[in-house]
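@channel sequence for tomorrow's demo:
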Amino acid sequence: MPDNAMFYQTQISGGHHWSFFARRGNAMALRDIRGGANVGMLFYNPELRNEKYNAPDTLKCQHTFQLTAGHCLYSDMGRIFCSIVADSFGAHDTVCGNSTAQIVAERWQPRSYQTQSNAWTQNGHDSFLTELAKYDLNVRHMAANVNWFSHVVVDDEGAMSLKQTPSQDKEVTLRFEMDTIVVLHTCPHPMDTSPTYPETEVQIVLAKADPVQPDDLCLNHCDENRRGFRNNALFHMEPFYD
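C-alpha cells (generated this afternoon):
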C-alpha cells in the first residue's frame, strides 16, 4: 500500500474491539505486529443493515475452505463487501466463529472490568455486541465471522484444529467494493489453547485503493466473483463491463 495513499493509522491491543464506516474505494491493511493475533470481523451494509457477511456463500462460490488473496467476501444478497487484494499470511479462518465468555472463563483466569479496568479478559461474542449496538444492531444480526491470522486445518477424520502458523509482521489488505460497516475485535480465536490469555497488537492502516482494472486478481478469480462485481454495479447503478 503506497504511503501517499494512507489517511489513517491505529493500533489495537489484544482483547479489544473497534468499528468504523468503510467507504467504497478505500482499503484496509491489517498487520499482526508480534505474531499470534486473531482479528474477528463482520461486515454490514449501512443502507440495508439486515444485509450482512455470509461465510457459507463466500466459501461455496469460491470453492475454498480458507481465505487469501484473490477471494471476495460476500453478503447474503450476493454482493461483495470487500476483496482481498494482498495477503502474506495465506490461510484465514471463517468457519470457527467466536470465543465466548464461557470459553474465556474455562480456558484462562478471567479478569473483570471492575478489578482490572481495560485489562479485563474480553471475548469475541460480547465484543461484537458492544460494537453492533453503536449502529442499532443486536444479537439477531450476528453471523459467522472471519478470523484473520488464524489458520484452521482439518485432519483425515474431519476434526479441526488451530495451526500455529508464524504470523509476525504478516499483512492482509482488503479493498472495499461497497460502503460497509466494519465491526472487529482482537479477542482470542475459540480454538486457541495458549496457556495465557493472548494479548497481541494489530496495526490497522486505511488508505485509498487503486481502482479495479480489467485484469484484477479478485474480479477474475472465478466466474462467481464476476457475477458478484456485476451485482455491486447494479446496486450502485453503474455500468459493468464484462
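heads up for whoever presents: The chain has a mean pLDDT of 94.
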